[in-house]
Amino acid sequence: MVEWLAWRPLDAVRTGVSPTTRGATMSWYEPSFVYQVYPLGLCGAPHENDGVTVPRLRKLVDDGWIDHMKRLGATCLMLNPVFQSLSHGYDTTDYTTVDCRLGTNDDLRFVVDACHKAGIRVLLDGVFNHVGREFFAFRDVREKGQQSRYAGWFNIDWNGNSEFNDGFGYETWASVSTLVKLNHGNFELNDYLADVIRGWVRDFDIDGLRLDVAYCLDRGYLGYLRQIADGISQERGEKFVLVGETMFGDYNQWMGDGLCDSVTNYEAYKGLWSSFNSANMHEVAYALERQSGSKPWDLYTGKHLLDFLDNHDVPRIATRLDDKRQLKPLYGLLFAMCGVPCVYYGSEWGIEGEQHYGDYELRPALDAPEWNDLTDWVAALAHAREKSDAIVWGDYHELQCQPQQLVFQRCHGDERVIVAINASAEPAVAHFDAGCGRAVDLITGEPHDFGGGSELAPFSAYWWLCER
User: Most buried of 46, 187, 249, 462 (most Cβ within 10 A)?
Assistant: First the structure.
């Protein structure tokens, strides 16, 4: 170990938590590495609910997926829908019962307990914007019409009709008639869903929620969810996290005091892959600066968005990239940028998948997890991030940007890390003011001398911890 690294307490090295900030307003989420699983896909469930109970969810334990996550360095599992639905999971029919295609409530608790034993937190997908047509309350409306006690749970047009000839029309999500929009102006509905969330905490011991299409949820309802989450946090003595799914626009509409703790970073997602494909690193550099820089107009400085290269709704990154050799530097950038990195199951060893109707190719059934040199690299990045307060908590300052190279600095307290990315097939030399003479690469442990310029190998990423 380089002598100027030795000052850090061992527990801080292991957890990535600064001794000066421990116990303040931090939660477990900001230093985490999230691993995303779409369980209906991974576990090989039928595309349509056949009513047969099969404990497929236990595959995550029995086939080594949780062990794989731990080896990879993941500290949080984000599970997409697990509750009873008719098809893809987002057409919920019962919030209190695990989808029979995945097993039972006991099977979900078994998986969550196994995750916790491995030191992995668990987020469930909270689909609270809409439900399926067989949801008990909407079924009651179909049977009783305006006499249903649940009519106010939905936005009903009693003078209209639906394609199913219900005798009334209703608001949907994105004009999808099988996804019935909930009316969060109804307090009885909101109280019911609050009880659902508390039940999930009680029965499954989960650590937070991903809020599906949070950009469609009323801010007042988001504030109510925040109150529920804060109450759970107080009872548990640790943060119950809300991560909202957002697309574009100002994320401060859905993230901040009284709202979500974090949101999905689609804005940077586009720049991450397209800047590599077009040899225009200025695109992602602009996004990173706009989001996390020190200018008065920068939007999310100090906040921790959920960063990703792919997920269950977009093409796999190995398919999206024109040159797959860029996967390593791109993952190096993902784990070094401000925010919380998220990896979608299978992408850590480079599987491909294009987006087609139904998105089934994006959500494949897989057997046991695989491991290759890309997986080695992702694991090395994850473990390097654990050691660095600057990478987890630090500010963002660009040092150099070229068409295929990007160099920036993350600084927290007296720790400073310089990140250098080379997306080119050719070596490059980066010239910038490092503010010191020596460093050590957090990923490889190799020493680095900034004198005479910094050589960057083809398709490379470096995290240089600068001497003090």
Answer: 462
